[in-house]
Amino acid sequence: MALSMETQLQSIFEDVVKTEMIEEAFAGMVMDTPEDERTKLISCLGAFREYWGTLPQESHEQCVQWIVRFTHSQHSPKRISFLYDCLAMAVETSLLPPRMVCAALISSESLEWERTQLWELTFKLFRKIIGGVDYKGVRDLLKTVLEKIETIPITVSSAIVPQLLAAREVVQYILDRNACLLPAYFAIAEIRKLYPEGQLSHWLLGSLISDFVDSFRPTARINSICGRCSLLPVVNNSGAICNSWKLDPTTLRFPLRGLLPFDKDLFEPQTFLLRYVLEQPYSRDMVCNMLGLNKAFKQRCPVLEEQLVDLVVYAMERSETEEYFDADVGGTSQLLWQHLSSQLIFFVLFQFASFPHMVLSLHQKLAGRGLIKGRDHLMWVLLQFISGSILKNALGDFLPVMKLFDLLYPEKECIPVPDISKPQSTHSFAMTCIWIHLNRKAQNDNSKLQIPIPHSLKLQHEFLQQSLRNKNLGMNDYKIVLLCNAYSTNTEYFALPMGVLVEAIYGNGSMRIPLPGTNCVASGSVPPLPMNLLDSLTVHAKMSLIHSIATRVIKLAQAKSSVALAPALVETYSRLLVYMEIESLGIKGFISQLLPNVFKSHAWGILHTLLEMFSYRMHHIQPHYRIQLLSHLHSLAAVPQTNQNQLHLCTESTALRLITALGSSEVQPQFTRFLNDPKTVLSAESEELNRALILTLARATHVTDFFTGSDSIQGTWCKDILQTIMTFTPHNWASHTLSCFPAPLQAFFKQNNVPQESRFNLKKNVEEEYRKWKSMANENDIITHFSMQGSPPLFLCLLWKMLLETDHINQIGFRVLERIGARALVAHVRTFADFLVYEFSTSAGGQQLNKCIEILNDMVWKFNIVTLDRLILCLAMRSHEGNEAQVCYFIIQLLLLKPNDFRNRVNDFVKENAPEHWLQSDWHNKHMSYHKKYPEKLYFEGLADQVNPPMQLQPQYLPIYFGNVCLRFLPIFDIVIHRFLELLPVSKSLETLLDHLGGLYKFHDRPVTYLYNTLHYYERHLRDRTSLKRKLVHAIISSLKDNRMPGWCLSETYLKFGMNAREDNAWIPDDTYYCKLIGRLVDTMAGKSPGPFPNCDWRFNEFPNPAAHALHVTCVELMALAVPGKDVGNALLNVVLKSQPLVPRENITAWMNAIGLVITALPEPYWIVLHDRIVSVLGSLALTAETEWPGDPFALLDFTACHQSYSEMNCSYVLALAHTVWHHSSIGQLSLIPKFLSETLKPIVQTEFQLLYVYNLVGPFMQRFQMERTRCMLEIGVAFYEMLQAVDQHCQHLFYMDPICDFLYHIKYMYTGDSVKDQVEKIIMTLRPAMKLRLRFVTHSYMMETSSSAASASTPQPPPSSLASTSTTASPSSTQHTHAPM
Fold this sequence. Notes:
GO cellular component, one term: transcription regulator complex
Number of strands: 4
Protein name: Mediator of RNA polymerase II transcription subunit 23
Main location: nucleus
GO biological process, one term: positive regulation of gene expression
Structural class: mainly alpha
Region (Disordered): 1348-1382
Largest sheet: 2 strands, antiparallel
C-alpha cells in the first residue's frame, strides 16, 4: 500500500533532525562538526531528491508547503536553521524552484513577527534565494512581503528590531536597481497600490520606500503635460470633443495612466475645469462627453451635482454685486441665470443630478451668507423644474425648497406685488408660484404635508387669485404669464391664460391675410409672441404651448386645410424651438414627429412652411438632427408629389443649406454614423447637392487636418461616401478646384475620372433637336418627344435658340416645360449651363454678346423659365477648365450684375430689413411689401403671359413666410465666392461682386464661420493676394456694421491699420498688437466683466458662447493680416517666449492656453513654426552640454516650479508651450509628430538632456495616440529607442539610466506592449551592458542575459514582454513557471 506524501516526507526529514539522548541531556553543549552537518544535508537531500523525482508535477507545491510547515513547527532554532539550509541547497542545485519556496515561506501562517528568530531566519533564506525567481514572481513576492511587514505594530520592543530588519533587507534587495531582479516599474506599481499618494510606508522600511518613489518622480513628470490643470477648452470648438478633456466621473480626476507619483495637482479633482465648462452656454454635450455620462443610463453623478450647486451660489454672488439687474438690459448674471435653469433641467431630468439633494446642499452653502438679491432668480430656476416634474414625482422630493424659502425670505411683512408690466416681475412671483404648485400636489395626493401660505407671500397670492377671476385678460402686461406659471399643473385654472396666448397666435377663425404668390391665404394673426414673454414662461408652460402648436399643425395637416398657418403661429413656433430645455417636444418632436406626420398627410403647404422655418429661423440645432432632416429631404425628393416647382426648389435649397452649414468638426462624427448605408445621406439625382457635400468634406478634412500625413482615402470613413456619390452622380472637378482638395481626395478623383461630353457633341445634339422641333407638326408629338423621360435634357438650349432666332416662344414650349416637371428640369439646367459657356465662348462679342446677355436675363426675369439661384448654382458647380472656366464665371457675373433686376432686389432687401428676427414683431409686413414689389414667379408665369395667345395661369402657391430670391441665393453666393477664389484671373470680378452684393452677408447665419473656413481652406491661394483677402473680410464684416455693437469682431488696431492698408505699404503689426489680441481671448475665457466683447443673446448668435466667438474672430483677423503665416505663428509664440510687458507673469498658463487654442485653429504654416522652436532649443547649450547638470536636469523641465522661482529658462517655456499647443491639437495635427521625431529630431539628439527633453515633449501624448491613432504611437515607440541608441553610442557616461529605463517600461506596459518588440530587441542588443541589463525585461531574448550578476543564486528568468502575458518561458537553469499577469 502506497504511503501518503506526509508520511514519506516525515520519514525523510525527521530522520535528519532527530537527536540522540546524550544530545538532549546536554542540550546546548554538544555541537556537530561542519562535516557532520554537511553529511546530514547531503543524505537528506539525496533521499528527498529520490522522492521528489517520483512526485507528479501537481503535487510539487503541496510538497514544498509541507516542508515549510514542518520547519515552522520546530522549536529549536538550530533545527529550523538546518532545514532552511536544506531548502537553500535544494534551490541552489535546481532541485526546488525558488519562486515556489519563497511563496510557501511568506504565506506560512506561522511566520509572525513575534517569532523573531523564525522571522529573521526566514527572511535571510528569502534574501539568499530570491535572485533565482522570475521577474513577475519577484513582483508578487514584493507585494506579499510588504503586506507581511504591515502586520508589525507601531510600537515594539527595541530589542527585537535588529531581527525584524531582515525583512527590510529583502525589500531593499528587491528594489536595488543594480540587482535588477524586476523592472523597477513593476515595483513602483505594487508600492503605489499599497501606499497611495500621501500615505506613509511602514516605519520598519524607513525612507527606503519614499526614496524609491521619489526616484520615479522624473518619470512621472516626463509623462505629464506642463500646467495641465490650467488648460481650458473652448466649448463646441473642434478640439473640445477629443479625449484630452475626459475626467473620472466619480473623483473628477484626470485619467492618468500608470501608478506613478505624478505632481500633486494632477491627483486633485478638476473642479475648476468642470465648473468652467458648465458655465458655458450649450456645453451639456461636452459635460456628458467629459464625464462619460450616457443619457440612456440613469446614473447620479454627485460631483456634477456639487458643481451645479456651486454655480448657483456663484450666480447668487454675482447678483449681489451687479449694479443693475433688468431683463430688458440683459446683465451678465441675467444670461447666467437663464443658462443655469437650462443646465439644471437637463441634468436633473436625465437623473445625473438629484433635485432634493441639490436643494439641501444649496441651503447648506447659502446659510449665514446673507445673499438675498438673487433669491427671486434662484426660485425662478427651481420653479422651472418643480412645475415640470411635480406631477410625476413624490411631494417629499420638493419640500426642501420650503427650507430654502425660510432661509432666503426672512421678512415678517408681506412682500409687495411688483410692477407686472416688467418681465422681471415673473421672477418676483416665483416663490409664490412654487407654493401654489406644492399646495396643489398636496391636495391631489390628500397629503398631510399641506403647508399654509407663508405670511410674506399673501399679497402676491391674493393678486393671482384675483387675476384668475378676471376673464378678459389683455396682452399688455405679464399677468397672463404669471397665471400660466402659477397654475400650469392645475388644468381647471390653466386653460384660461393659456387659451389667451394660443388665440393670440392662431388668429380667430374668420380673418384671412394674403401670402406671397397667387391663391395663397393664411389665418390672420401676424405679430408673434415676443421673446421677453416666452422667456418669462416656465418650462412647463412653454411645453404646453409648443405641444398645443404642434398638435394644431398636425390636425390642420390631416384636415388638408386650404388656409395656411397664421404668420404669428409660425414665428412663435420658431422662437419656441430655440429653448434647449424643451428639446424633446421642441426640435426632436419637429424632426421625428411633426415632419413625418405632415409628409404622411401630403400637406405640402405645411411641409414647405416647416422647411422654410428650418432654413431661416433655426439656431444651434444639434448636428444629428440636421443630418436626420437631410436624410428626410433626400427620401422626400423621390416622392412623385414633391415634383412641383416650388416644393422641389425649397427641398433642394434646404438640403444645400444643411450641407454647406455643417461645421468642420461635425462632418466626420455625423457621416460615420451612416457608413453601413451612405445612400440615406446622399442625393440619388442632384449632382449639385453631392458636389456641395464633397466641397464640405474637402473643407472639413482640411480644417481638422484629418488627412495630414496620409495620401489615400483607403480605410477612411470618406471612401464609401465618395464611391456612392460617384455611383449616383458621376462627375469631374476642374483642376483649379481639385488643386485645393486635400491630397487623398485629389488622388481619388484622378483615379475616378469621368469622360465628359465634348462641346462639339453638345452643339451637334442641340442643332439636331432644334431641327426636329422645327420640322415636327403635331403638337402632341412635339410635347411627347421633348418631355419624354430619357430624351436628351436639351430643352432649355432649344428655348434659348428660339429666343435667339425668333424672340418668342410658342405655347407648345410652355406645355413641354410643364410636362418635363421640376425634378427632370434640373438636368436641363445643367446642360444649359454647359451650352451657355460654349455659346458665349464662340460669340463674336459686341452686338451678339449683348443679345446673348439680354436673352439669358429674359429667361430668368421676364419668362421665369429658370430661377436665378438654380442657374447660378449649376454654373458654379460645372467643371470647366482654363478659358471656358473664365467664361462661365463671366456669365455668373453678368447674371448677377448686368441687369438691375437682382441688384435692386438685394439693395432694397438689405436696406429695409434687419437680421434680428427674434426682436421683430413686423417681419411679416415687411416681407409682404417686399414680395409685392418683387413678386416671385415660380411657375413660368412670365412665359405664359408672353406666348401667343397668352395663357391665363393661376398656379396654387405654397405659403412663403420668410424666403425670397436674395436669401435663397446666400448659400450659393458662398459657393460662387469659393469658385472665384480658385481661379486667379477672375479676382477682379470677385471684388466687383463683393462690392455690389456683399451687403447680403448681413443675413448670413454664420458670417464669421464662413470667413474662417474660407481663409483657412484657401490659405495657400490667398497667401500673396492680400488685397483680395482684405476685401473679402471687409465686405462680410462691414455688412453687419449697423446690426452689431462696435468691437464685436475685429480689433480696433486692425480696423485702423489693417483694413485701410495700401498694397505697396503693407502694415506689419508689432508684438503689442499680438499681445492685445491674445489678451482679448484670455479675458473672455476668464469671464472678465465687462468682457472684451459686447454681451449678446447666445441663443441667436452664430457661436454658442463668448469663448467660441472670441476664438473665431481672432483667427479670422490673424489670417486676414498681410503677413505670412510663418511670421504670424512666430509672433504668437513670442507673446510668451519673449519678455512682454503686457503679459502678466502670474497668469502665464492662461496666455499659453489661449495661444494653444488660436494657433491650432489656424492653417499648418502658422503652427508648424513650433517645430523650429523645438529644434533650436534642442541645439541650445543647456541641452547639448555633456557634463552632468549641476542641479537636477528634471528641475529644468518643471516649468511651473521654474516660473514661480523666477529661474525659468527658454527650454522649459518652449516645453510648456509645445504641451499646450499639442494638447489643443486635433489628432491630424499630432500625427505629424512621428515624422518630426524620426526625420528632424533623431539626427540632433546625442546627449542625455536632449533625450530626456524629447521624451518629456512627446511622452504625455502617447495616451491620445493610443486612443486615436495607434500607428503613430508605435512609430514613436520605436523612435524613442533609436534615439536612446544614438545617445548610448555618443556619451561616455550615462547619468540618468534609471529614469530613461523607467520611462521606456512605462511606454511598453501602458501603450505599445509587444507590438514593437522585434524592432526594439535589435536596438537593445547594441546598448552598453548596464543599460542592456536594465532593459532585459523588454523582450524575450535569452541572448540579452548579461553576465552582470543580478542574483547570487541563479540566472534570472527571461521575461515575457507584456504585463498581460501568460506565456510560459523556461530558463536553462530552472523548471518552468507560468507568469501571471500583472
